[in-house]
Amino acid sequence: MHTHVRAASASGIRPVHLASARASSQGIKPRLAPVARRVGAQYSAQLAQKVTSGGSQLQRQSLRVHASSSELQAATTDDSGADNKTEAGEEMNSTVSTSDIWELDFCSRPILDERKKKVWELLICDPDRNFTYSEYFPNNKINSVQLRNALQRLLDQEGVEAPLKVRFFRAQMQTIISKACADLPFKAVPSRRCITLMNWLEERHQTVYPKHPGFDPNAPPLMTYEVGAPQELPDALRGEQWAFVMLPLSQVQQEARETVGSGGFGEVLSGEMTGMSGNPEENFVPGVAVFSQRALPLAAWTNGLELAGLKTDTEMGYLVLETGVNTQYRYASYRRTVAANKEAQEWEEAKNDAGGLHFLAIQSDPDSPTCAGFWMLRDYKPSTAI
Fold first, then answer.
1. Angle formed at CA 15 by CA 373 and CA 228, multiple of 5 degrees
2. Which of 29, 172, 300, 348 has its CA 20 to 30 A from that of 78?
3. How big, in percent rounded to 5, are the helix, strand and coil portions of the chain?
4. Are residues 196 and 286 in the same domain?
5. What are phi and psi of 287, to 5 degrees?
């Protein structure tokens, strides 16, 4: 079996070949070698027979810091001190948070108040959903000052530690959110890596908002984002070779944890965030491996982006790197042959079979035993308009 590895050229990245499915008693050499041109579901069983993960499972500290079970009560009040909290099918509360990342949404909901105006809601959680916070707002209180005050009240609660950054996925709310967070001890970052928040929103649309007495089933869809046309990739983000690759979910998570734990760059998705169930040794995840002699600085530059995902464009013959909430880059090109397009299509099919889960890895060369960067990614498409 062989897969295409792409090498840098003036026009982009061109194909070379890499033998696949090499294994040893110490593990897979190289770590990302179990690759195949055909990465569709029909090949997974054959691949599983050839790949052995080997070695002991390393117990490294997760990127996520678990919070305690203490609970805080949050209430919304207007400038006069009157209670502004709207009645819903649940109480608004939060669990003490010590995570370095929060996910935030501030948007209208399919709920009308007594004035027949849409109710807005602030939702915050951490990626592991150990911490959740919700607060309703009337539509005449929607501005950066009100949002900033709500965030400050939350930070003032005993046991709540400020994160390093707060992610939000609605580009239309960037001005309000950025202004609200300007003088707070964290950075507001537009990002599609709000998988836990989107999943929570989907649940609330199905189980919480319909129970509210002001629920409006005919409410129009909420804000959406428009993705811009793919841009030219900055030189600092350009590798020298790349390959379509595939690994069991268990090894994908191990690679990500080992990379971050050893001083590299990346991010781990665990539990429900992966969107996969069943035996992690048997569930295969497609990915893209990038090779560069300047792997560590390349990984550092890449980590500065809010990576959202990778996709193929078979009409134009290149990979697309999605970042932030609406930015895209032409990440790597390939010659549009029948075989190359088929390989790209099968990689997309494998990603779809994995529930959108995939990964990006950066190594110094195909035979390197370690990664300088490893990011677990997921194309998350909620079934409900959120």
1. 60
2. 172
3. 25, 30, 45
4. no
5. -155, 180
Task: Indicate if the pLDDT at residue 316 is higher than 80.
Answer: yes
What band does 95 get if pLDDT is binned at 50, 70 and 90? Answer: low
Q: What is the mean pLDDT of the chain?
A: 77
Domain boundary among 211, 236, 255: 211
Q: Is residue 202 part of a domain?
A: yes
For residue 117, being part of any structural domain is answered with yes
pLDDT in tens, 133-164: 999 999 999 999 999 999 999 999 888 999 99
Q: Are 271 and 128 in contact (CB under 8 A)?
A: yes
Asked if 121 and 107 touch (Cβ cutoff 8 Å), the reply is: yes
- The verdict on residue 218 lying in a domain is no
- Our count of domains for the chain comes to 2
What whole-number distance in Å separates Cα of residue 32 and Cα of residue 289? 7
CB 200 within 8 A of CB 125: yes
- Tokens for 382, please give them: 């909620």
Say how many CA atoms lie within 13 Å of 83 toward its Cβ.
Answer: 5
**Are 103 and 142 in the same domain?**
yes
Q: Which token pair is 352? A: 């779809």
Q: Which two tokens stand for residue 323?
A: 């970042």
Does pTM top 0.90 for this prediction? no
| 8-state DSSP, 215 | B
Same domain? 237 vs 373:
yes
Question: What is the extent of the structural domain holding 40?
Answer: 2-62+227-378
Listed in sequence order, the residues at least 6 apart from 199 whose beta carbon sits closer than 8 Å to its beta carbon are 272, 380, 382
Please check whether residue 384 lies inside any domain of the structure.
no
Same domain as 110, residue 38: no
| Helices within the chain (DSSP H only) | 41-50, 144-156, 174-181, 195-207, 249-261, 295-303, 338-353
CATH of the domain at 138: 3.30.420
Other Cβ atoms less than 10 A from the Cβ of 33: the count is 21
Structural domain ending residue among the three candidates 187, 211, 235: 211
Looking at residue 210, its pLDDT comes to 96
